[in-house]
Amino acid sequence: MSSEVKVPTLGESVTEATIGQWLKQPGDAVKLDEPVASLETDKVAVEVPAPANGVMGALQAQEGDTVTVGAVIATIEDSAPAAGNEPVAAREEKAQPPASDTMPPKAAPAPPAPSAAPAPAAALDTSTLSPAVRRAVLEHGVDPSKIKGSGKDGRLTKEDVLAAAQAKQAAPAPSPTPAQPEPVEGHAPEPAPTASRREERVKMTRLRQTIAKRLKSAQDTAALLTTFNDCDMSAVVAAREKYKEPFEKKHGVKLGFMSFFAKAACLALKDIPSVNARIDGDEIVYHDYVDLSIAVSAPNGLVVPVVRNADQLSFAGIEKAIGDLGRRAREGALTMEDMAGGTFTISNGGVFGSLMSSPIINPPQSAVLGLHRIEDRPVVRDGAIVIRPMMYLALSYDHRLIDGREAVTALKIIKEAIEDPTRLLIDL
């Protein structure tokens, strides 16, 4: 008797997914709730658990295939794999006739030739790898059996895989020099052949396709405009330096710049409600809460998890929420619920070194705040030129809903709150 492996419910309004990777192959032993496949949806990667203990049977879909919710994609046999799906070695062993005392002894096999390649080492049992490690192995194309694990009981960690991938890239590739032909009298020597050039075509993941469609749709639908300002980070840098140790000791999380900008954005959104609103048909929907979307660069692409009720959270609450969402994004463990909703987005390109950019809004939201790198620049203060840690701020907005005065005012509120953090305490 066999059990069917079906595509699980993927979230509201999500009806199909792409099979990103089979984590189990026909003939592999599986346990109840053990991941057997990884699915890629429009927003996140979802693992398909085994519905029962047994042996992996026939695969009814291949990697890259599009499948719908509820579709049967494989079977799990109770004890033995389905015919034709068991390991090759097992089928060959069954095909051998049983040994008998009356049969003549077989001749001893000839010793292998000296040039025969040694048998490969046993492959690492991938069932012991975590989903994040499996994805990292697949993404970087490394052999997990050749990596020494630094985790508990010698298990591989994501850091082990990344280190191995970096070492693989750093290793120089051998480049044998071909023998040069002897010149022929009266003929010019032929030019040496140039290095080989190649192209590689890789199908876009479902997540990357969705990112492309949504961003292009935002450009085609919204009347996008960006306003800029620069911000003196001296006060926030000093406050963070002064309180980071007691803050971490009390709350168990580091004090970062993002919580300051989140609180400043909430202050601006309360004063300028249209920046926190959205267009729905011929109506404007205003929100009396702030669900803050934080753009995070994950291994499979850009994701935007949501910090719920950010306007009600403390600095520590915001830092903990952002830290948890960022960690789960890097591990590929975000759920559809983590991504749903959001009324305003903050995108921090400064962590990658960006000096200035005009971010694109995240539909159906109407505005996005872009943060950039902090760098020392000369500015004028009280008639004197001084050096200050400065950051460019960018607010992109949908001009159909938000007027220029409102956008500029909102960005000015954020700038003033960062330059004088006391405003965050007295709601000014």
3D structure, described in words:
By secondary structure, the chain is of the alpha+beta class. It has 2 domains: 2-88 and 127-166, RNA polymerase II/Efflux pump adaptor protein, barrel-sandwich hybrid domain (OB fold (Dihydrolipoamide Acetyltransferase, E2P), Beta Barrel), CATH 2.40.50.100; 222-426, Chloramphenicol acetyltransferase-like domain (Chloramphenicol Acetyltransferase). It is 28% helix and 23% strand. It has 10 helices and 19 strands. It has helices spanning 88-95, 131-140, 158-170, 206-221, 234-251, 258-271, 315-330, 336-339, 404-419, 422-426; strands at residues 2-6, 16-22, 29-30, 35-40, 45-49, 54-59, 66-68, 72-77, 224-232, 278-280, 283-285, 292-294, 296-298, 301-303, 306-307, 344-348, 367-371, 375-381, 384-398. Strands 9, 12, 15, 16, 17, 18 and 19 form a 7-stranded mixed sheet that branches. Strand 10 (278-280) and strand 11 (283-285) form a beta hairpin. Helix 2 runs parallel beside helix 3 (158-170), helix 6 crosses helix 7 and helix 6 (258-271) packs across helix 9.
Notable characteristics:
OB fold (Dihydrolipoamide Acetyltransferase, E2P), alpha+beta, Chloramphenicol Acetyltransferase, globular, about 425 residues
